[in-house]
Amino acid sequence: MTARIIDGKAFAAILRESVAEHVAHLKQTKGITPGLAVVLVGDDPASQVYVRSKGKQTVEVGMHSYEYKLPADTSEYDLLALIEQLNYDLSVHGILVQLPLPKHIDEALVINAIDPAKDVDGFHISNAGLLATGQKAMVPCTPLGCLMMLREYCGNLSGLNAVVIGRSNIVGKPMAQLLLRESCTVTVAHSRTKNLPEILREADIVVAAVGRPLFVQSYWLKEGATVIDVGINRIDQADGTTRLVGDVDYDTAKEVAGAITPVPGGVGPMTIACLLANTVTACCRAHSLPEPKRLTI
Ligand code: NAD
């Protein structure tokens, strides 16, 4: 069997188009332009790339992008003061603080200082709680993108066995909550899980969010499973260059899976597209306007 390749890049382009259409509609009919504020503290090169890409795509869909680049020695107090200012700023509908933050800043404190209604990353404790209790929440972008692709490729997910590998607050846990909400039978595997290959053999859906290159082996998978690879890992090549790979041994897994996301070009592009979609959703909620159904789940 050769898997269908889940083209996250194409999927993200369609989602961005829907976002752009809705932004244009909000401008024309209500005179409102959604705004996204991205806060970067320090000069981590990977974070700088992400922030640049987010800003560029925000502008491309017609939204306002506000970037705050703060030095690495910014105090927690000053960062919290900026968050408070953005919370009150009516032109800002979404606030994202790029993680990781420098060690002297308490990440949880900062994330929980964001107005939950503007928490487009969905990391605020209120949004985590709302999601866990099946209420309307801001859903974290990466799991949201994964679920959108799963729905597209699997249709109705009800009753399927889903295994999420990884239990982080930003991917594994919210992913498991979303799959539970879809009436999947969900298993969350993690670093202490015993017999992972045995657990995976029963899985109709596998979401790998481990952070270990090529970790999931093809012979662990059930034939025809849908595999979503969240991992982004750089590995060194013999010629001195680096290559981006996921958490799944893609080349062999695609011979067993029914559908699979590649890395790059799978989950990654969907994450930023979902950030833009969440910003539009937050803007609609802030103005008590109907939420565009295509932009959320
Ligand atoms: P994390 O380090 O916070 O969590 C990793 C999880 O993997 C942990 O819960 C741990 O228990 C589990 N784990 C570790 N070793 C394991 C093992 N041997 N067996 C089973 N489980 C094991 O990482 P994260 O933030 O959740 O990210 C995971 C991966 O996804 C990383 O590669 C990250 O770069 C990537 N990521 C990608 C996107 C995207 O947009 N594509 C977004 C976020 C994270």
UniProtKB/TrEMBL annotation:
Residues 6-121 form the Tetrahydrofolate dehydrogenase/cyclohydrolase catalytic domain. The keyword Transcription does not apply. It comes from the Bacteria. NADP(+) binds at G166, R167, S168, I232. Keywords: Amino-acid biosynthesis, Histidine biosynthesis, Hydrolase, Methionine biosynthesis, Multifunctional enzyme, NADP, One-carbon metabolism, Oxidoreductase, Purine biosynthesis. Pathway: One-carbon metabolism; tetrahydrofolate interconversion. InterPro entries: Aminoacid_DH-like_N_sf (IPR046346), NAD(P)-bd_dom_sf (IPR036291), THF_DH/CycHdrlase (IPR000672), THF_DH/CycHdrlase_cat_dom (IPR020630), THF_DH/CycHdrlase_CS (IPR020867), THF_DH/CycHdrlase_NAD-bd_dom (IPR020631). PROSITE patterns: THF_DHG_CYH_1, THF_DHG_CYH_2. Residues 140-285 form the Tetrahydrofolate dehydrogenase/cyclohydrolase NAD(P)-binding domain. Pfam families: THF_DHG_CYH (PF00763), THF_DHG_CYH_C (PF02882). It catalyses: (6R)-5,10-methenyltetrahydrofolate + H2O = (6R)-10-formyltetrahydrofolate + H(+); (6R)-5,10-methylene-5,6,7,8-tetrahydrofolate + NADP(+) = (6R)-5,10-methenyltetrahydrofolate + NADPH. Its EC number is 1.5.1.5, 3.5.4.9. Gene3D superfamilies: Leucine Dehydrogenase, chain A, domain 1, NAD(P)-binding Rossmann-like Domain. Catalyzes the oxidation of 5,10-methylenetetrahydrofolate to 5,10-methenyltetrahydrofolate and then the hydrolysis of 5,10-methenyltetrahydrofolate to 10-formyltetrahydrofolate. NCBIfam families: PRK10792.1, PRK14186.1, PRK14188.1. Belongs to the tetrahydrofolate dehydrogenase/cyclohydrolase family. Homodimer. This is Bifunctional protein FolD.
